[in-house]
Design brief:
Number of strands: 17
Structural class: alpha/beta
Oligomer: single chain
Number of helices: 15
Strand content: 25-35%
Distance between the termini: 64 Å
Length: about 450
């Protein structure tokens, strides 16, 4: 190649195609335009927005800083003329097809699509590697928080034991308001919707689907094993009551929706992974207990590194765009200097254990007959299934009926053993009803 042709190639811009122009896409486009000179200096070549794929033309998108001609409805054509494709449209299709098409045409991909990665991550990894390009996805979990790259790269020489985190801002806001104001679930959700923290249909958040997808990604990276969203045990927060939150407060705890990924020794000495999402009480002394409003935080425990905490805004246009653009710079540097980022690491191939084998502590509230011998019968049910009682508290009901509330906190036990215990307790004549069961984490 003549010297002048080589110099021209080195100075030519890297073309960035943006798929989606919602809240995050708008922020990505604006920051790309505003930081043009800085990105060129950091990468070694300029970045140029090749186009933005949208559903409909004609809308006012002046905030992006891009001219009208930059927008197109032909996403399939756009990805064929890009060096880097940024996917922020979400969902499974057409995102998956567009990403695979981008790989086929030699483009690296940066995505924030947690649902797609949790469902079909291995296929995307394999396609990227087959075409010699990068797949980066820092923004898919915990917004602006640098979390996935530390798991994938910084802790690659360590053994991660536990990843425990608050990875959904909507549910954290709702539970925080229930704790701080005494609001009920429905009222707290309405407030979250009014402030833009919750969607008009909050199902994906409050029922734990969003957090489950993120838990699958975290477990895959932390334990070098393939984990999908379907592998994750999931409970949402719609059944959490104001009484549950008050009970937690009486124990000096708070209720949080947690994503929990744990390396666990199984019978015979082998290892497996427990991956679950559910509400749980955690002590107010735990670092995650102080995470307020719509913030996210993830607590990581590794063999050599010990305990690490990652905290920050987990959603929003600019925070998420920050993570996206960090990935854009990384893959652009690879385009300029050669090489690729880490491929999928699934060598450990640890099995995902059924929820019945997960071990944790439990809080139970029972309405029981207020007469002698009740506690002995209840305690016998716990003993029969190997569940050890840590604390017991009893209070007499204010109602005319001769009943009392019995609150029990257990030592760690398997979910299977606790379920069998609850079933036996429910059948006792002295038990009016099991009013609440909640896991206790973070000790």
């Amino acid at each position: 190649m003549p010297v002048n042709a080589k110099d021209e190639a080195e100075e030519s811009p890297l073309r960035v195609a943006l798929l989606g122009c919602g809240v995050v896409g708008t922020s990505v486009a604006r920051l790309l335009v505003q930081g043009r000179d800085d990105f060129a200096a950091r990468i070694g070549r300029p970045l140029e927005v090749a186009g933005v794929a949208v559903r409909r033309l004609g809308r006012d998108r002046i905030e992006t800083g891009l001219p009208d001609e930059a927008f197109t409805t032909d996403a399939e054509e756009l990805v064929t003329r890009a060096d880097i494709v940024v996917e922020v449209i979400g969902g499974i299709e057409p995102a998956r097809s567009l990403i695979l098409r981008a790989f086929e045409h030699g483009a690296s991909v940066v995505t924030a699509n947690k649902a797609l990665l949790a469902e079909d991550g291995p296929r995307l990894y394999e396609a990227a590697r087959a075409h010699g390009v990068d797949l980066y996805y820092e923004a898919s979990v915990a917004g602006a928080i640098p979390l996935l790259r530390p798991l994938r790269e910084s802790l690659a020489g360590d053994e991660v034991r536990t990843v425990l985190g608050i990875v959904n801002g909507t549910t954290n806001y709702v539970l925080d308001k229930m704790d701080s104001t005494g609001q009920g679930f429905a009222e707290a959700v309405e407030q979250a919707q009014a402030l833009g923290y919750a969607e008009a249909d909050p199902t994906a958040d409050v029922e734990g689907f969003d957090a489950a997808a993120k838990a699958a990604i975290l477990a895959s990276l932390a334990f070098h094993s393939r984990v999908t969203a379907a592998d994750v045990y999931r409970e949402g927060i719609s059944e959490v009551t104001a009484s549950d939150v008050r009970a937690a407060a009486e124990m000096d705890c708070v209720v949080k929706l947690l994503a929990i990924c744990e390396r666990q020794t199984v019978e015979g000495g082998g290892q497996g992974i427990s991956v679950r999402v559910h509400p749980a009480m955690i002590p107010r002394s735990h670092p995650l207990a102080g995470v307020r409003e719509a913030f996210n935080a993830v607590f990581v425990e590794a063999e050599a590194a010990g305990e690490l905490m990652f905290y920050g805004p987990g959603a929003g246009g600019d925070p998420t765009a920050s993570a996206v653009l960090g990935d854009v710079v990384a893959v652009a540097r690879h385009r300029v200097g050669g090489g690729l980022g880490p491929a999928e690491s699934a060598y450990a191939d640890l099995p995902v254990l059924p929820m019945g084998q997960a071990r944790t502590r439990y809080y139970l509230s029972l309405e029981v007959a207020d007469r002698p011998g009740v506690l002995a019968q209840v305690a016998e049910a716990f003993s029969r299934h190997g569940v050890s009682i840590q604390q017991v508290r009893q209070s007499v009901s204010a109602e005319e009926a001769p009943s009392a509330e019995l609150v029990i906190v257990t030592h760690a036990a398997t979910d299977e053993a606790l379920a069998a215990t609850v079933q036996q307790i429910s059948d006792l004549d002295v038990v009016v009803g099991v009013t609440s069961v909640m896991r206790v984490e973070g000790e």
